[in-house]
Amino acid sequence: MHTSTNSYTLELHNLAPEPAEEWARLLNFVGLTEQDKRTMSATVETLMDRASELVIDTYNYLLSVPETAAILGWEMGADEAHLAERRRFFTVWLARTLGMDTSDEFAYYLFRAGKFHAGHGARKIHTPSAYVTTSMGLVGATFARYMQEANLPGHIMAPALAGWNKYLSTQLHLMQLGYDIARENDTGSMAIPIRLFGRLRPLVGKHEFEIKVHQNSHVADVLRKFFNYYPQTRVEALEKVWHSHEKKDSDWVEVFPAYVPRNGWRVLLNGLDLHYNGGLTAPIHKKDKIDIFPPGR
Predict the structure, then answer these.
(1) 54 and 135 share one domain
(2) What is the CATH number of the domain that holds 35?
(3) Into how many domains does the chain fold?
(4) What pLDDT, on the 0 to 100 scale, is given for residue 147?
(5) Fewest Cβ atoms closer than 10 Å to its Cβ: which of 12, 118, 236, 251?
(6) 3-class SS of residue 200
(7) Number of other residues whose CB lies within 10 A of the CB of residue 205
(8) Which of these three, 136, 162, 185, is where a domain ends?
(9) Which residues of the chain have pLDDT under 50?
């Protein structure tokens, strides 16, 4: 257990799951095995042969449905540059999917895709989660149709579709995780700027980022949203520590994580180090600013 001689605690609780850890956990939960991958791979050539057709047909379908056409701003027809962007994005995703990518980096890719669907992409287009969820179902259905039309035998199709269903449903969860965190980040009446220094800047891609929080929030609420939105920064700035809690009338001990700044990292509120000025329970007000400094700064 982490111990500190500081006057105020800097423990951060209740962070969302880290994408790569959640990806591995749920792939294990659904039981995606090497045998599943072998059966899936027996259908990859069939699916790859029609990959470009799937990409084109997907956006033709979205254009034909008034609700999704309106979401994309295509009521009067598709913008060609925008359509090309979306086809490229979908093509990259499809190629990685047919390659059965289970890497940590792909987990972050899916998480980021979820944020984009929540309106946090370059074009700020919010796609309601219902369409994201059901679109993944349409992909699975199209996989099944392509296999059937290729006259693949049932003893190949059935186990392959079981594997694809496991894989696609886990992908969907990672996208939903990013989507939910992005939508949560849009809630709140106060926009609190966080300035980043050192190694955090290239990880985030910017030197300052605003977090929205509600009235009567605390520093912990701002940092929780930040580290949920940019989970790739945790490995640099935070250390995971574990606590245990014995529940009454139970033989089990509940173990749960918390996060503390790594050695030398500092969090400042309006220029004051929170180690000595209120900790993470310090209240947040309009026009407050938070700085996160690495060691040596």
Answers:
(1) yes
(2) 1.10.490.10
(3) 2
(4) 98
(5) 251
(6) helix
(7) 9
(8) 185
(9) 1-4
Strand order in the sheet with 190-196: 208-213, 190-196, 290-293, 266-269, 272-273
Residues 113 and 160 in one domain: yes
Angle between helices 19-30 and 104-117 (to 10 degrees): 100
Single-letter code of the amino acid located at 155? H
- pLDDT reported for residue 72: 96
Cα separation values, 252 from 93, 242, 243, 245, 257, Å: 42, 16, 14, 9, 16
Give the torsion sign (CA, 197, 121, 213, 221): negative
From 152, 185, 218, the end of a domain falls on 185
Q: What's the domain range around 161? A: 19-185
Kindly report, residue by residue over 168-190, the tens digit of the pLDDT. Answer: 999 999 999 999 999 999 999 99
Say yes or no: 73 and 200 in one domain. no
In our burial notation (b when 16+ CB lie closer than 10 A, e otherwise), range 16-47 reads bbbbbebbeebbeebebeeebbebbebbbebb
Phi/psi region, residue 259 (left: phi>0; alpha: psi -120 to 50; beta: rest), is beta
For the beta carbon of residue 165, count every other beta carbon within 10 angstroms.
17
Kindly state whether residues 24 and 118 are assigned to the same domain. Answer: yes
Cα dihedral 202→204→206→212 (10° resolution):
-160
Both 139 and 283 in one domain: the answer is no
Backbone angles phi, psi at 278, to 5 degrees: 100, -20
